[in-house]
Amino acid sequence: MKTCEFHYKQSVERHMTYLEIYFRNDFKKLAYDMLEAQSHSDCDAACVAMSCFCKKYVQLASWYEWWTKRKDPFF
User: Fold this and answer.
1) For 49, how many CA atoms within 13 A lie in the half-sphere containing its CB?
2) What is the C-alpha separation between 62 and 38, in angstroms, rounded?
3) Which of 39, 27, 38 is CA-nearest to residue 67?
4) 39 vs 11: CA distance, rounded Å
5) What's the total number of domains in the chain?
6) Smallest Cα–Cα separation from 75: which of 41, 36, 47?
7) Which whole-number Å values give the CA distances from 75 to 16, 18, 47, in the listed order?
8) Please, which residues have CB within 8 angstroms of residue 38's CB and are 6 or more apart in sequence?
9) pLDDT of residue 40
10) pLDDT tens for the 75 residues of the chain, in order
11) d(Cα 8, Cα 31) in Å, to the nearest integer?
12) Which domain holds residue 20?
């Protein structure tokens, strides 16, 4: 699990570069909210927020889909 967390954070940092500089922290916060959610309902709410963000920034859609397919064991 620690390895996956490391790779998730590494992936977040890499994908931040796809965004204009003033949206990078928004993306990082949403991504970390998904990772650090304390319950399924918190995680679902964080995923909804990230999904809305990714609709504006379609270059992140595949990243979001890839991680949400794996969210149940890790988030």
Assistant:
1) 17
2) 25
3) 27
4) 23
5) 1
6) 36
7) 20, 24, 11
8) none
9) 86
10) 555 888 999 999 999 999 999 999 999 999 999 999 898 899 899 999 999 999 999 999 999 999 888 776 655
11) 9
12) 2-74
* CB-based burial, 4-15: b 16+ in 10 Å, e otherwise: eeeebeeebeeb
* DSSP character at residue 7: H
CA-CA distance, 20 to 16, in Å (whole number)? 8
37-66: b or e for each residue (b if 16 or more CB lie within 10 Å)? beeeeebeebbeebeebbeebeebeebbee
- Which tokens go with 69? 């397919």
